Amino acid sequence: MKTLIAAYSGVLRGTGSSILSALQDLFSIPWLNKSKVEKQLQVISVLQWVLSFLVLGITCSLIFMYIFCTDCWLISVLYFTWLIFDWNTPKKGGRRSKWVRNWAVWRYFRDYFPIRLVKTHNLLTTRNYIFGYHPHGIMGLGAFCNFSTEATEVGKKFPGIRPYLATLAGNFRVPVLREYLMSGGICPVNRDTIDYLLSKNGSGNAIIIVVGGAAESLNSAPGKNAVTLKNRKGFVKLALRHGADLVPIYSFGENEVYKQIIFEEGSWGRWVQKKFQKYIGFAPCLFHGRGFFSSNTWGLVPYSKPITTVVGEPITIPKLEHPSQKDIDLYHGMYMESLVKLFDKHKTKFGLPETEVLEVN
User: Fold this and answer.
1) Max CA pair span of the chain
2) Mind listing the pLDDT tens digit for each residue in 141-168?
């Protein structure tokens, strides 16, 4: 009997050892390594934003249309009724959510590239600002991460400053997408919104405008540092009308995260892009990044290249209710000069040669 018990105990010990060994083997599997898990979480966090940017609007619209044709039609009716009453909320700065801006997903998003925010000067909370963000890149990923989330601690680096990233007004006519954008402090890039934020929302407001817009995105390519700025003067006029200081921003690496097919001027592809830009407000780009599972395949996930966003010195702007063209040209010239100086001062710190020149178109 004792022999039987001893044998049984040995089996149990052997079983326990086997289980422990199996667990150790399980956690040694490559895909369960902490660093690999974190990398996959980073990829997922970036991909969810890319898909939100590209398809969330149309997907939610189709879902609500489908629901309207079912027994749950009341859900669609109630949402669109509320939407009518809430239509002008984006024009007044929206409904930013501190909770959403501090989601952990944005920290994974930040670490994937990684993205950094560099402060060069303090900003007075008694002033309002228009930040000019350059370059646009394909999706303005640096602009989103730095100013629509707290992943790079914009609130701590610029205490008392409320950033509002301005984007296409059409995005705020789309169900659910508009709520998602507003929760991050994103607003429409139109005169009504900017006038409201700079005149009826107190001080300490900073509106981030990606000045080059869709036209600049068409020329986005790795290794290229070019901005569309020479004929973009509307933001300077708005700054003068409200006495809002101008702040140049250059995001090193923004053009490195996607590759795209650039159509030559005069080609059918460029003609189609310009028509979209003129009538819809955005220009479709043929671009690609890496695949979800492998960096050696093509996909929608951007390449993990560092993006460093440098916020330059504010340019003090006087308040002129009716600025002349001469006034606009003067401060526009000062802004371009300040942007070039910012680029030249920091380019070698972020991997560019001393001979690199910022192309201003």
Assistant:
1) 106
2) 999 999 999 999 999 999 999 999 999 9
Report the alpha-carbon angle 318-359-230, nearest 5. 40
| DSSP state letter for 34 | H
Residue pair 134/249 in contact (Cβ under 8 Å)? The answer is yes
Q: Contact 104/89 with Cβ under 8 angstroms? A: no
In the chain, domain spans: 34-360
Q: Output 151-160 pairs: Cβ under 8 A, ≥24 positions apart.
A: 151/106, 151/107, 151/109, 151/110, 151/115, 152/110, 152/115, 152/116, 152/117, 152/309, 153/117, 154/117, 157/117, 157/119, 158/119, 158/123, 158/206, 158/311, 159/125, 160/125, 160/204
Distance in angstroms (rounded) separating the CA atoms of residues 93 and 193:
7
pLDDT in tens, 283-316: 788 889 999 888 888 999 999 999 999 999 999 9
CA distances from 332 to 251, 347, 359 (A): 20, 22, 16
- Phi/psi of residue 151, nearest 5 degrees: -60, -35
- Token digits for 47? 């991909």
Distances (CA, A) of 290 to 51, 110, 286: 14, 17, 14
- Is residue 322 packed enough to be buried (19+ CB in 10 Å), middle (13-18) or exposed (0-12)? exposed
Residue 185 · residue 192 · CB < 8 Å:
no
Q: Return the SS3 of 164.
A: strand
**How many residues belong to the chain?**
361
Alpha-carbon distance 47 to 195, whole Å?
Answer: 34
Is this prediction's pTM over 0.85? yes
